[in-house]
């Protein structure tokens, strides 16, 4: 029997998201989520997609990632999709930070694990959780290939001029301070899907990808290779996000320490959790902000204005970086759903080439689609991202069959 299934695991500090896919036709067999691992009220939500069995939700004590994966394995086994099946070809893991070491998906061995561990200082929140997921999965199926797919890998093609901060080189190198970028799996998938939408190969087009979710980032992709992206050493840099400030004068931090008496941890929390849309108007959900704007709420309008202003600046900058732009693609929760954001972000940019057809922009759909009028110099696309499918595809490509 040929093994054609891939399990994709996205392990966070207190959650594990998973999908089981059949790579013969890229169909999903099951999806699910374990939440509040090691906390009160942990629970598992599992949806088999094979025979329309419906979602099963259980509240169970789940002490750690090992218990979480065991519970997932039990649920999958109930649907005849157990992890001991010979049809399972590999497990693909989302790993947030691959630093400069990992430029592509990598089959995991002890040396790879050690290198992911060595990168913990630049990704203290994410890499430890990813490692727990990998170790647990390896213990469960030591015989199975496990592949790490890195959020940073797609951005390792950035030239030094984009990847380096203008600070003392020796200091930067000693502490590995440089711009790594994140959401790379999504930027890779969406830039390729946009080329396909234009009927072209990725090597033939230059694309600006706007990944606008609760976290948000932009990238400039020339001929299929990333040449710039808005996130940096951490996912804090760049666009205004749900709860993160994005770009800020670093001296704001010194000011808050010296004049405001704030600690490093307080400022970290301020900029990562209490800033962006939520800091500006108290809401980080674009649906709610949109509703408030319609009711004439000035704070919501200001927050939206700041969000759009930053987005426009990045679009303009990446037009300059790329020189020739063939398409601008919107993706993730906000990018795929908020017609108002797409319209506002490109309003007034017609001299640079992009144009939005109001009727096409208003259509709601799960399909990748163009929303620019025929003949626009720069096509505008909405492309639903699919990071799990991309991780599964990259994982499956590395498996001997
Ligand atoms: P993500 O991080 O990609 O899951 O995106 C989550 C964000 O997408 C939410 O916080 C919302 O702001 C936004 N979102 C989801 N659905 C809609 C919608 N129908 N209209 C506007 N924004 C939406």
TrEMBL record:
PROSITE patterns: ACETATE_KINASE_1, ACETATE_KINASE_2. Its cofactor is Mg(2+); Mn(2+). Its EC number is 2.7.2.1. The active site is at residue 151. Substrate binds at residue 94. Keywords: ATP-binding, Cytoplasm, Kinase, Magnesium, Metal-binding, Nucleotide-binding, Transferase. The record marks 183, 244 as: Transition state stabilizer. It is found in: Cytoplasm. Pathway: Metabolic intermediate biosynthesis; acetyl-CoA biosynthesis; acetyl-CoA from acetate: step 1/2. GO terms for molecular function: acetate kinase activity. It catalyses: acetate + ATP = acetyl phosphate + ADP. It comes from the Bacteria. Mg(2+) binds at residues 10, 387. InterPro entries: Ac/propionate_kinase, Aliphatic_acid_kin_short-chain, Aliphatic_acid_kinase_CS, ATPase_NBD. Its main location: cytoplasm. Mg(2+). Can also accept Mn(2+). Pfam families: Acetate_kinase. ATP binds at residues 17, 211-215, 285-287, 333-337. The keyword Metal-binding applies. Catalyzes the formation of acetyl phosphate from acetate and ATP. Can also catalyze the reverse reaction. Belongs to the acetokinase family. Homodimer. This is Acetate kinase. It comes from Streptomyces heilongjiangensis. The lineage of its organism: Bacteria, Bacillati, Actinomycetota, Actinomycetes, Kitasatosporales.
């Amino acid at each position: 029997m040929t093994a054609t299934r891939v399990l994709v695991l996205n392990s966070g500090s207190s959650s594990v998201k998973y999908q089981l896919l059949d790579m013969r036709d890229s169909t999903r067999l099951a999806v699910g989520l374990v939440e509040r691992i090691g906390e009160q009220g942990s629970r598992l939500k599992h949806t088999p997609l094979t025979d329309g069995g419906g979602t099963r939700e259980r509240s169970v004590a789940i002490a750690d990632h090992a218990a979480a994966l065991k519970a997932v394995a039990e649920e999958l086994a109930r649907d005849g999709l157990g992890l001991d099946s010979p049809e399972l070809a590999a497990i693909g893991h989302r790993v947030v930070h691959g630093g400069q070491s990992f430029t592509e998906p990598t089959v995991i061995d002890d040396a790879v694990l050690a290198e992911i561990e060595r990168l913990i200082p630049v990704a203290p929140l994410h890499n430890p959780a990813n490692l727990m997921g990998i170790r647990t999965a390896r213990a469960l199926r030591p015989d199975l290939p496990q592949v790490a797919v890195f959020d940073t890998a797609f951005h390792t093609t950035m030239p030094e001029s984009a990847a380096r901060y203008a600070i003392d080189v020796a200091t930067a190198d000693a502490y590995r301070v440089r711009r790594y970028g994140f959401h790379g799996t999504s930027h890779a998938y969406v830039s390729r899907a946009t080329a396909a939408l234009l009927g072209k190969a990725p090597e033939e087009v230059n694309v600006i990808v706007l990944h606008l979710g609760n976290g948000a980032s932009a990238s400039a992709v020339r001929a299929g290779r990333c040449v710039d992206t808005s996130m940096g050493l951490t996912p804090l840099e760049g666009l205004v996000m749900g709860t993160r400030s994005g770009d800020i004068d670093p001296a704001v931090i010194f000011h808050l320490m010296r004049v405001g008496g704030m600690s490093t941890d307080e400022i970290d929390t301020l900029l990562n959790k209490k800033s962006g849309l939520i800091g500006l108007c108290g809401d980080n959900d674009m649906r709610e902000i949109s509703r408030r704007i319609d009711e004439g709420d000035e704070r919501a309008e200001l927050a939206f204005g700041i969000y759009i202003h930053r987005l426009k600046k990045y679009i303009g900058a990446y037009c300059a970086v790329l020189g020739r732009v063939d398409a601008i693609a919107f993706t993730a929760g906000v990018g795929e759903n908020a017609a108002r954001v797409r319209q506002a972000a490109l309003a007034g940019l017609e001299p640079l080439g992009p144009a939005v057809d109001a009727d096409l922009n208003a259509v709601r759909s799960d399909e990748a689609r163009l929303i620019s009028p025929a003949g626009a110099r720069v096509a505008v696309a909405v492309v639903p991202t699919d990071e799990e499918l991309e991780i599964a595809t990259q994982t499956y490509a590395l498996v001997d069959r």
